Amino acid sequence: MATGPAGYPPAVTEVTERPLLRVERRDDGVVLATLDRPKVNALDAALLHEIEALALDCADDPPGAVVVTGAGRMFAAGAELAGFADPDLRPIQADAFRSAFAAFEGIPCPTIAAVNGLALGGGAELAWCCDLRILGERSVFGQPEVLLGIIPGGGATQRLTRLVGRSTAKRLIWGGAQVDASEALRLGLADEVVPDDGLLERALALAADYAAGPRVAIRAAKRAIDEGLRLSLDAGVDLELDLFMEVFETDDARHGVESFFEHGPGRATFRGC
């Protein structure tokens, strides 16, 4: 388990109790966001607006890392279908998905989905927005929209395809079948699978490791990777070089290089600036 000052477990320093989203800022630099919309954390416009607000807060004041999970025994069961069944509400709900997920994907620090139980439809699409996905052994992904005669509307045709490739994305979306944790790991949809009772602890520990690292460098690497995928190879390499030169001007870089020459690799303690 990650520890805080003097070896104690990290403390929660700030709690924001939004109606449907509990947000904890911890003294190890990690933000824990818990979806809490009974009974199955279905994503309606209100919850999506809260997710977007969290993402914008994290963009304005980046923590070391963000972990998102679901309250109870489910990550998120997907969209609140009542919002899409009503023609007047459908555009509002669709815009809420687009804005919330774009904002969450744009969080500049590492983001980790701690997927507990089912992550279906929009719930899976939220996980696709994260940098990493850690699953409990009984967790399940699924894009079941075609079983209702529709298609994903929260970005799965694009983000899932970028994760697993065109053929696999088509197979998963066309069939609407659920993918268990072991299959998700094989396909690259999961980065780790851990026992269910250790899921959140593992996600928070990994997030704390990133938060304790050189935060500016980690954010720069995330930007280079994510933005570079939208550029030509030459333009992506140019972006990487620009960020490389910028990061060399940070205190963490100076300290890291000095520590390397004095003590060898892997011994620097970073301050995140």
Shape: globular
Helical percentage: 40-55%
Largest sheet: 7 strands, mixed
Runs with pLDDT <50, length 5+? none
Distance between the termini: 25 Å
What order do the SSEs take from the amino end to the carboxyl end, as H and E? EEEHEHHEEHEEHHEHEHHHH
Count of the separate structural domains: 2
CATH superfamily of the largest domain: 2-enoyl-CoA Hydratase, Chain A, domain 1
The number of helices is 11
Radius of gyration: 19 Å
Please identify the top-level CATH class of the largest domain: Alpha Beta
The fold-level CATH name of the largest domain is 2-enoyl-CoA Hydratase, Chain A, domain 1
Number of strands: 10
Report the CATH architecture of the largest domain. Alpha-Beta Complex
- Overall SS class: alpha/beta
Mean pLDDT across the residues is 91
Strand content: 15-25%
Walk me through this protein's architecture:
- The protein has two domains: 5-211, 2-enoyl-CoA Hydratase, Chain A, domain 1, CATH 3.90.226.10; 215-263, Orthogonal Bundle (Lyase 2-enoyl-coa Hydratase, Chain  A, domain 2).
- By secondary structure, it is α/β, with parallel strands linked by helices.
- Helix content is 46%, strand content 17%.
- The strands form two sheets. Strands 1-2-3-4-5-7-10 form a seven-stranded mixed beta sheet, sandwiched between helices. A three-stranded mixed beta sheet has the order 6-8-9.
